[in-house]
Write a structure and sequence with these properties.
single chain, alpha/beta, TIM Barrel, 9 helices, 10 strands, 14% strand, binds fe (iii) ion, binds zinc ion
Length: 278
């Protein structure tokens, strides 16, 4: 089972790998830079080599880089879209130092321009930054649909994947809190939600799961993560997610609010203990 959490470290990739091992994880998510944007630290080849050694030794699954939250490829402001392109392209270049992993981004908020205009701007951004030689798989994240977010409906993700020139090489990261908040009942009808995802997007495009509980009820469009078992989705439903035959081989990344590493260590241990059949 591939399970881990979102980590941050002042000590580069080797620090992330060390923290992952400390919490009992064999995958992790991290921000490529300050989550509010800003410059990324230069890549240190010795740091990458240390990380790769740990990853091999511990049989890590795919690591997932998360784009900054401020990245909005479908903003109505040209300079915000330019910033999104620059950060996106720079992040993808950096990810090639750890080839063959995943890069997740929020499709963005159309800020009143409408979903159609938003999708067109997202596709323009992707066409500007994706390269056929990249080994990183770029993932669209399912969103809660709060405000003017694009990606709260599976069909919106499908449209982006269909229209981007290299969309066939992209995938989707499903966030359990976000889809629940968007109105997909992963607690009461997981099979139905997966059927819907398969119909709209295709389960073969699903590459990662953000495993979170939600502070709010189904369809609330809030996007407030809760600790596993402390929210409206509940422990039993999240246990069904990690054991579902269509999901169980995907990497799971916790983005739960914790005060320190011990919180994620406890959640990872709990979910491993509830895993059926290894
Ligand atoms: Fe996210
Ligand atoms: Fe997420
Ligand atoms: Zn979220």
């Amino acid at each position: 089972m591939y399970i881990g959490c979102h980590l941050s470290s002042a000590d580069g990739f080797r620090g992330l790998a060390r923290d992952a091992v400390a919490v009992g994880a064999n995958v992790f998510q991290f921000f490529t830079r300050n989550p509010r944007g800003g410059a990324a630290k230069p890549i240190d080849p010795a740091d990458v080599a240390d990380f790769l050694a740990t990853a091999r030794e511990r049989a890590f699954g795919p690591i997932l880089a998360h784009a900054p939250y401020t990245l909005n490829p479908c903003s109505d402001k040209a300079d915000t879209r330019r910033f999104a392109r620059e950060v996106f392209a720079d992040d993808l270049a950096r990810m090639e130092h750890v080839p063959g992993n995943l890069y997740n981004f929020h499709p963005g908020s159309h800020v009143g321009q409408g979903v159609g205009a938003g999708v067109a701007l997202i596709v323009e951004t992707l066409d500007a930054v994706l390269r056929p030689e990249q080994t990183t798989t770029v993932l669209l994240e399912t969103m809660s649909g709060k405000g003017s977010e694009v990606g709260g409906r599976f069909e919106e993700l499908r449209e982006i994947l269909d229209r981007a020139a290299l969309g066939a090489r992209m995938g989707v990261c499903l966030d359990t809190c976000h889809v629940w908040d968007a109105g997909y009942d992963v607690a009461g009808d997981l099979d139905g939600v997966l059927r819907e995802f398969d119909r709209a997007v295709g389960l073969d495009r699903l590459r990662a799961i953000h495993l979170n509980d939600s502070k709010n009820p189904l369809g609330s469009r809030k996007d407030r993560h809760a600790r596993i078992g402390e929210g409206c989705i509940g422990l039993e439903a999240l246990v069904r997610v990690v054991n579902h035959p269509l999901l169980r081989d995907l990497p799971f990344y916790l983005e739960t609010p914790q005060d320190d590493l011990s919180g994620w260590a406890a959640e990872i241990a709990l979910l491993k203990s509830r895993r059926t059949g290894g």
